[in-house]
């Protein structure tokens, strides 16, 4: 164990795979996947020649371009490329890229050549979890990071064997060697990842450029002299913090309290909003009476049961049943499973309980799982709710009860780094304790300190799961429900007096709040929840995003549906579409003629901003469609300043009155990437928006049509294959065909033929003007071949029904 090595069980396969790559591939000349000859200097030189020195700056996905670049490479070079991609993907957590997707990418590369060897099962399974959230640049600039990795291997392989061994035995020498390579590609993420993977006891698991800089800047006294390499200074910080804590061999997790908000300050908007709701909740309940007393009583009963078990008193089984049935901390179905096993095999049950109660470490939870029969509490959620309640004998203030529902809901709300899908019970529970500690830290910083983890647990449960909160108004409960669904809603500013008459929030609208969760919305839109979660996090962070993509990718549809979900009501949403004659006077304010002269009228932006400012408990959304069709600088005017400095006032051009954009107003723009005017956007506007690409060739957009057809038109599943093949031939995201053309529940083959002939092909002819051979290959007949159903057959089938 060390201050920089992640100790969790899910990290061990990652470190094992990295060590295997170092020993068998970097030091020796062996293939990571087959164990035979491979990873040679000649193969690395091929990849340098074919990939690094021949960059493909055109359109298309990374893998599709890589297949072209390696088309003439040897089988050994292709094998090495797949193994290096494995190493590149190894460090990323599953919430960045899932294990199945990682394996699919490696498999695609192996498919570039015949006779390649796939990864053995133990390596393939290592991709199910990772170590760090790598950030968006990790995916966006994969070609840069992969190129740096290729150069690292070529550099190491160029050394004599004894020098290779010396290099890979010395972490600081290895780090210096990486620094001598050309980092102008922006491959700092890959460098930091390699340093940690190969030397986890020296270099910390931090790969983000800004995060590394902030950590070093927060503890300069621990980092050491400024002329030291950043990786060395970062490691010094970790070891220094471990020394200060009196545990030099214990891992320092800078994403946990008390360190997280020391370097990543202030708390994110999601955490700040959660703090407001937790304060609001704490003002309306008595934590001692409502949440703590009955858990303390349950703990005392469990301690009494433990004493009976230790004495082997035969009454312990009955008293254990009373302890569970006397509280609502565990679902009755879960504890009934445990109690049935106790009755069936008291000897084994007693042994398992004693082990759970003897060892205070979280590892005892995994031992308890192994002690259970395979058909008892097989689901982690049920099992951990039972075992965490049993662990209260170690002190509920230190080890409170866990339930998946409220913990998962709160983790989603604050975008907390949740445990990996393969995490054992100990790792999941430890993550729960870390979440509670962050709540304790947050409330202390807000001036509303809690006593311990049990208070934090009770407060979280009440805020995110309680059916009602005493003393709250209907308007407050509406806002609370919206926040629970993940919407950016703050508590109404005026609290209700606990003993006073019930009042209503005068600024609240009567529009209902939708019960749809973000996961429900994603399912309805046939998108991955993680995609919408990213959009949601970007809006929380910056308040404005732009959806870009080719026509038919659903940008406007998703923007409108998401906007209504975020606002909770269509009454708090508005959409405008820009065009070349649209200006500031239409968008913000301007004089309009009338019979007796001119009158100053507000545009949609000013109207919705005023409504949002008057109703801070709700979110408002303005969708600006086809943003690049208008002259953005002319349309937005002085709003460029207000987009960046929310809450600040600026004087408007015509009314000359102070105006600001409230924090609860969100802007979603859409842009057609096939329109060349997108290139005319000035950098000032680009800097104020986050951009989300709707690429029909990449997940999640690439999966929308197959999912939709499987639900609504399974006999037309071939349409998704046709679309995929067409986009592969076009090989240009700006001209790709989007799925929206075919998202109609009454879709038939006849519809598909008409859509393709009169909607899709005319657009392609304009974009691919003069490329006759390509256009000929993009007709529906050419794409679907003879095996696809015909329009006539589709009509006949319909008649037969």
TrEMBL record:
Annotated Gene3D superfamilies: P-loop containing nucleotide triphosphate hydrolases (3.40.50.300)
Annotated segments matching region Disordered: 487-512
Every AAA+ ATPase domain range: 541-699
Annotated signal peptide: none
Composition skew (Low complexity), residue ranges: 496-512
PANTHER family, per the entry: 5-METHYLCYTOSINE-SPECIFIC RESTRICTION ENZYME B, TYPE IV METHYL-DIRECTED RESTRICTION ENZYME ECOKMCRB SUBUNIT
Protein name: AAA+ ATPase domain-containing protein
Organism: Cellulomonas iranensis
């Amino acid at each position: 164990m060390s201050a920089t090595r992640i100790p969790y069980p899910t990290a061990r396969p990652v470190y094992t795979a990295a060590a295997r790559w170092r020993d068998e591939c970097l030091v020796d000349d062996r293939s990571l996947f087959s164990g035979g000859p491979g990873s040679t200097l000649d193969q690395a030189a091929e990849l340098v020649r074919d990939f690094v020195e021949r960059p493909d700056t055109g359109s298309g996905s990374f893998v599709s371009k890589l297949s072209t670049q390696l088309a003439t490479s040897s089988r050994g070079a292709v094998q090495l490329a797949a193994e290096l991609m494995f190493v590149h993907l190894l460090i990323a957590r599953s919430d960045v890229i899932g294990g199945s997707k990682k394996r699919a990418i490696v498999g695609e590369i192996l498919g570039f050549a015949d006779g390649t060897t796939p990864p053995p099962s133990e390596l393939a399974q290592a991709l199910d979890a990772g170590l760090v959230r790598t950030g968006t640049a990790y995916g966006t600039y994969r070609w840069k990071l992969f190129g740096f990795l290729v150069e690292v291997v070529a550099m190491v392989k160029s050394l004599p064997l004894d020098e290779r061994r010396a290099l890979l035995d010395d972490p600081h020498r290895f780090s210096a060697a990486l620094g001598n390579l050309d980092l102008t590609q922006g491959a700092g993420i890959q460098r930091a990842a390699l340093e940690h993977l190969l030397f986890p006891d020296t270099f910390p698991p931090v790969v983000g450029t800004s995060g590394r800089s902030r950590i070093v800047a927060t503890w300069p006294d621990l980092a050491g002299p400024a002329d030291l390499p950043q990786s060395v200074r970062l490691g010094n910080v970790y070891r220094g913090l471990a020394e200060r804590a009196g545990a030099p061999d214990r891992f320092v997790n800078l994403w946990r309290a008390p360190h997280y908000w020391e370097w990543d300050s202030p708390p994110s908007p999601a955490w700040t909003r959660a703090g407001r709701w937790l304060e609001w909740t704490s003002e309306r309940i008595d934590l001692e009476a409502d949440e703590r007393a009955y858990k303390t009583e349950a703990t005392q009963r469990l301690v009494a049961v433990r004493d009976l078990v230790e004495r082997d008193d035969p009454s312990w089984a009955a008293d254990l049943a009373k302890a569970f049935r006397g509280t609502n901390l565990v679902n009755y179905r879960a504890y009934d499973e445990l109690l049935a096993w106790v009755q069936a095999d008291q000897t084994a049950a007693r042994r398992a309980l004693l082990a759970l109660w003897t060892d205070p470490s979280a590892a005892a939870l995994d031992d308890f799982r192994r002690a259970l029969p395979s058909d008892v509490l097989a689901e982690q959620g049920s099992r951990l709710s039972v075992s965490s309640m049993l662990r209260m004998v170690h002190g509920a203030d230190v080890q409170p009860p866990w339930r998946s529902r409220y913990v998962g809901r709160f983790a989603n709300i604050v975008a907390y780094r949740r445990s990996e899908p393969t995490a054992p019970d100990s790792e999941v529970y430890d993550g729960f304790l870390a979440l509670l500690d962050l709540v304790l830290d947050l409330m202390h910083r807000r001036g509303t300190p809690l006593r311990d983890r049990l208070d934090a647990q009770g407060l979280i449960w009440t805020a995110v799961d309680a059916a009602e909160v005493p003393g709250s108004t209907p308007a407050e409960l509406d806002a609370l429900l919206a926040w629970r669904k993940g919407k950016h809603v703050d508590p109404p500013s005026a609290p209700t007096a606990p003993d006073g008459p019930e009042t209503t929030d005068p600024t609240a609208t009567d529009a209902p709040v939708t019960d749809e969760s973000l996961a429900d919305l994603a399912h309805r839109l046939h998108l991955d929840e993680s995609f919408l979660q990213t959009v949601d996090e970007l809006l929380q962070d910056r308040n404005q995003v732009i959806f870009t993509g080719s026509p038919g990718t659903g940008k406007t549809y998703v923007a409108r549906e998401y906007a209504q979900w975020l606002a909770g009501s269509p009454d708090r949403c508005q959409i405008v579409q820009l065009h070349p004659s649209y200006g500031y006077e239409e968008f913000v304010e301007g004089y309009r003629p009338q019979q007796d002269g001119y009158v100053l009228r507000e545009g949609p932006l000013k109207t919705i901003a005023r409504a949002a400012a008057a109703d801070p408990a709700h979110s408002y959304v303005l969708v600006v469609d086809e943003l690049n069709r208008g002259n953005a600088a002319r349309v937005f005017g002085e709003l460029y300043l207000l987009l960046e400095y929310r809450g600040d006032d600026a004087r408007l051009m015509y009314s000359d009155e102070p105006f600001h954009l409230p924090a609860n107003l969100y802007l979603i723009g859409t842009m057609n990437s096939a329109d060349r005017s997108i290139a005319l956007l000035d950098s000032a506007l680009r800097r104020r928006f986050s951009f989300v690409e709707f690429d029909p060739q990449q997940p999640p957009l690439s999966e929308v049509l197959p999912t939709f057809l499987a639900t609504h038109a399974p006999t037309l599943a071939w349409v998704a294959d046709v679309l995929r093949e067409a986009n592969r031939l076009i090989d240009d995201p700006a001209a790709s065909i989007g799925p929206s053309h075919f998202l109609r529940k009454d879709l038939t083959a006849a519809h598909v033929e008409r859509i393709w002939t009169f909607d899709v092909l005319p657009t392609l002819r304009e974009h691919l003007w003069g490329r006759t051979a390509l256009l000929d290959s993009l007709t529906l007949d050419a794409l679907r071949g003879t095996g696809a159903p015909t329009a006539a057959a589709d009509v006949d089938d319909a008649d037969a029904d």
